[in-house]
Amino acid sequence: MSLIPWSPFLDTFESLEKGFQNFVPAMDVYEEKDNVVVEATLAGIKSEDVDINVHDDVLTIEGRRQTSSEIDEKNYYRKEVRSGSFHRSIVLPASVQADKAEANFENGLLKVILPKETEPKAKSIKINVNNKK
């Protein structure tokens, strides 16, 4: 095993920090019998700062994390909690009834419940044959 000398220009966390520059909430998506459920972790975000839209079976969650001016006055050694806006869109695994969707926000967890579209029943079509010559 070779040793790599430490250099302030080669911070091992630098590339990791770049990945956190834009806040993207983690999401769980799962199906229940009659619903598609999406849960997103939005700790530190107020519910009034979150917008949810469903269009063509794509769920979009947008929002903003506000910061107060006192944060800029602190001398940080490390700053990983991000502020600013975020945007996340996911294609849902089933067709849903967007107009019947519900959202709950509690303890930093957003839960969106989307009723599945009911499957249309098969319809038999009779074929009429015209034998005109």
Would you kindly provide a written description of the structure presented here, covering whatever features stand out?
It contains 1 helix and 7 strands; from the N terminus they run H-E-E-E-E-E-E-E. With 133 residues, the chain is mainly β. The chain has a domain of 87 residues: Immunoglobulin-like (Sandwich). The strands form 2 sheets. Strands 1-2-7-6 form a 4-stranded antiparallel β-sheet, with no helix packed on it. The radius of gyration is 24 Å and the shape is elongated.
The CATH class name of the domain at 19-69 and 80-115 reads: Mainly Beta
What quaternary form is this? single chain
Q: What is the first-to-last residue Cα distance?
A: 90 Å
Instruction: Indicate the mean pLDDT.
Output: 81
What ranges have pLDDT less than 50 throughout 5 or more consecutive residues? none
| Count of distinct strands | 7
Rounded Rg: 24 Å
Would you give the CATH topology of the domain at 19-69 and 80-115?
Immunoglobulin-like
Q: What is the CATH architecture annotation of the domain at 19-69 and 80-115?
A: Sandwich
Strand coverage percent: 25-35%
Helix and strand composition category: mainly beta
Q: Could you give the order of the helices and strands?
A: HEEEEEEE
Shape: elongated
What strand line-up does the widest sheet have? Answer: 1-2-7-6
Short description:
This protein has a domain at 19-69 and 80-115: Immunoglobulin-like. Helices cover 5% and strands 35% of the residues.
